[in-house]
Amino acid sequence: MTIENRIQHLLSQMTLREKIGQMVQTHSTSDANKDLVRQGLIGSLFNEADVEKVAEFQRVSIEESRLGIPLLIGRDVIHGFRTIFPIPLGQAASWNTDLVEKAARAAAREVAPTGVRWTFSPMVDIARDPRWGRIAEGAGEDPVLASAMGAAMVRGYQGEDLSHPDSIAACAKHFVGYGATEGGRDYNTADIPERTLRDVYLKPFKACVDAGVSTLMAGFNEIDGVPASGNAFTLRQILREEWKFDGFVVSDWTSILEMIVHGFCADAREAAREGTLAGVDMEMESTCYLDHLESLVASGEIPQARIDDAVRAILRIKFRLGLFENAMPAVPQAPFAAREDDLALARRLARESCVLLKNDADLLPLGKSMRSLAVIGALADSPADQIGCWSFDRHLPDIRTPLAAIRDAVGEATEVRYVRALADEPAQSREADDAAIEATSSSDAAVLFLGEGERLSGESHCRAFLDLPAHHLDLVKKIHALGKPVVVVLITGRPLTIPWVAENIPALLVAWHPGTMGGPAIADLLFGDHAPSGKLPVTFPRTVGQIPLYYNHKNTGRPPIEVERKMPMGTPLDPVGFCSCYLDAETTPQFPFGFGLSYSSISYGPTEATVEGDSFHITAQITNIGSRAITEVVQLYVRDLAGSVTRPVKELKAFQKISLAAGESRIASFLLRPDDLAFHHRDGTYGPEPGEFQAWIAPDSQGGTAARFTLS
Ligand code: BGC
Q1: Is the CB of 47 within 6 Å of ligand 1?
Q2: Dihedral angle at the C-alpha atoms of 342, 347, 353, 354, nearest 10 degrees?
């Protein structure tokens, strides 16, 4: 029997109440919920870590409910389960879809034996505001990079065959526009015109649907007055009718009930009606569906066919996962030991996620034969801060901190003087400051660990200020004044505003929250066993006053004039005024999207564009002009010079990671198809528009040389 026949057969035996039960999801393993499972009134259990409780609920569902339909067990496995990989923003900085896919596969393989066959990942919300704590969970500001990362994760989690016991269903979230939250404040309103919604925010979701994602999660936010969890335009018209998605949609945590608070629904009954009719098939945590769907069907406000569609979609995923054959957890209890090959993968991905932002006079890599090295900063030795947000299942003893890894790397010959200064505490102890200064002045060099700990990052962890704490910066300045070689490693879940550090400290490496093997990965780079290859997936602003600041913005009629001005407030406008600038800050970022250095330099030859059928061949010679082998993320950007609506100043279209030996040259080559130039026109149609374009093959969103081409 085909899956569709099995679904139909099962559906024909279900009462309305049992059908509604499939649409109910809870995280609580209370006795009352166990009884609901027995009655067939819960379809999914999530975020229960105790494998025995999961097993018991699953057993009751299979053995004691009338139809024996297995539960779908969900969990937030966001960047690893037992083996923790870098936060997703860090993974995106690797630009390595192959490694990202492998990491998702490893996470699936680790979690599946515990009975969890569904993760609420990938988060593919485009985020242009680093104040938003959840920027850590996604791939940053660009739709093409986020699409590539999202699709890679979907492939990794779901594997070649969803029914394989190592595969888990993925969930692309949060559909849609959650990352456009006003002011970077979580759960806030998103105001997105339909064209931007389609050309920017929806793109990575479409890529996940094309990659076969099983489920989507509806967001907390509203879009243009309609909550995402009650939004028929996005959930029905776009997702089902235009994209033909055949999996199911789950709400976010109580987001159906919250439609009352939004002022969109008068009560829970109306919320159940709006959520269901819009296309949210399963309600997470709140019980509007359980309490009201039966009467809504009885009154004719919700057609029976809509309930059948929702249940069909949920059962489809349960059948595809093979849950009717095998749903019981295979292991008695998590966590179990991490595998060596997974740890090696975590180390490699963490290494490729690190971005070298500055390296004056080739200060890095450090030699291993120093007599002494000062390592300053609590973030160097705090396991939890290597992990970052969303990892319920981490096992802190597994985590190799940077301090431990630095000690391992340099061996006995170098004395490592660690000082736990720069802690994430309101004030700093005078003793720690003095010790840090003393350790630096008596060492050959110092590595400072700065940034934000995990408790400042993630859901509901938004920040109005992105500067380093003032007392941290004071100490950094004092250490810098000692005249020793100083390297800063930034441990962070988001771009921070670090103008003084960027201007004064000679070497700066961003490691994000790098995961279980972050320490060894950082040491690999600091001491030159490997060379950095990461590039920023998000712009680093100079000050929060510049936000939102993203590379693929519009040009305006009065773009900023090249001469950057930085004048005290109150200064009369100077002659370069009347353009889109600030009086008191630059318009350029501290570090642009796509930027990252290595231990060698690449020179980019002129970009050339040639016609190839209906497409364009864009090429440039790239040469490693330094003395060591490196890997470069080569980026292709395009600008459509005039459109029926204005077009961004640049858009990433494709990228490649190319390895080059010292002195080696290669031709980087991209095939640009008309479809790559498509966007939504003034009349709403989609496609490329004829006209002039500019293409850059570039090391980042600001570099490279442009070639023109014409699409006729
Ligand atoms: C988050 C989701 C998450 C869910 C379940 C919500 O608060 O927004 O991303 O998957 O909780 O834990």
Answers
A1: yes
A2: 170
The reply to whether 546 falls in a domain is no
3-state secondary structure 506-558: CEEEECCCCCCCHHHHHHHHHCCCCCCCCCCCCCECCCHHHCCCCCCCCCCCC
- Which residue's CA lies nearest to atom 4 of ligand 1? 253
Residue ending a domain, among 320, 336, 371, is: 320
Q: How far is the CA of 452 from the centre of ligand 1 (A)?
A: 22
Nearest CA to ligand 1 atom 11: 253
Residue 624 is part of a domain; what is its CATH number?
A: 2.60.40.10
CATH number reported for the structural domain that contains residue 83 in this entry: 3.20.20.300
- Note the pLDDT tens digit of each residue in 281-340: 999 999 999 999 999 999 999 999 999 999 999 999 999 999 999 999 988 665 578 899
Q: How many domains does the chain have?
A: 3
Residue 400 CA to ligand 1 centre (angstroms): 28
**CA angle at residue 25 from 173 to 320, to 5 degrees?**
70
If you take atom 7 of ligand 1, which residue's CA is the nearest one? 253
What is the whole-number distance in angstroms between the Cα of residue 39 and the centre of ligand 1? 27
Q: In the predicted model, is pLDDT for residue 614 greater than 70?
A: yes
Give residue-wise pLDDT tens across range 556-572. Answer: 999 987 654 555 555 55
Cβ of 120 closer than 6 Å to ligand 1, yes or no, is yes
Q: Count of alpha carbons within 13 Å of 173, Cβ hemisphere only?
A: 27
- Could you report the per-residue pLDDT of 564-601, keeping only the tens digit for each? 455 555 555 554 568 888 888 889 999 999 999 999 99
Residue 541: inside a domain: no
Q: What percent of the chain has pLDDT over 70?
A: 97
Question: How far are the Cα atoms of 91, 142, 320, 510 from residue 537, in angstroms, in the given order?
Answer: 9, 7, 34, 12
Ligand 1 close to Cβ of residue 696 (< 6 A): no
- 507, 526, 545: which is the final residue of a domain? 526
The residue whose C-alpha atom lies closest to atom 10 belonging to ligand 1 is 120
What CATH number is attached to the domain comprising 394? 3.40.50.1700
Distance CA 261, CA 393 (A): 32
Regarding the beta carbon of 253 and ligand 1, being less than 6 Å apart is answered: yes
Nearest 5°: the CA angle 440, 445, 447 is 85
Q: Which residue of 44, 120, 168, 173 sits with most ligand 1 atoms within 8 Å of its CB, as the best mutation to test the pocket?
A: 120
74 CA distance to ligand 1 middle (Å): 11
Q: Does some domain include residue 545?
A: no
Which residue minimizes the CA distance to atom 12 of ligand 1?
Answer: 76
> Which residues are tagged catalytic?
252
Does 282 share its domain with 378? Answer: no
DSSP 8-state assignment for residue 172 = E
Distance, CA 217 to ligand 1 centroid (Å)?
Answer: 9
Residue 549 lies in a domain: no
- Residue 40 and residue 162 share a domain: yes
Within this chain, do residues 312 and 445 fall inside the same structural domain, yes or no?
A: no
What is the reported pTM? 0.97
Residues 633 and 702 in one domain: yes
Q: List CB contacts of 141: < 8 A, sequence separation 6 or more.
A: 126, 127, 128, 537, 538, 539, 550, 551, 552, 593
588 lines ligand 1 (CB under 6 A): no
The CA 18 to ligand 1 mean position distance, Å, reads: 26
Whether 288 and 393 map to the same domain: the answer is: no
Ligand 1 lined by 252 (C-beta under 6 Å): yes
In terms of residue numbers, what domain contains 659?
Answer: 602-711
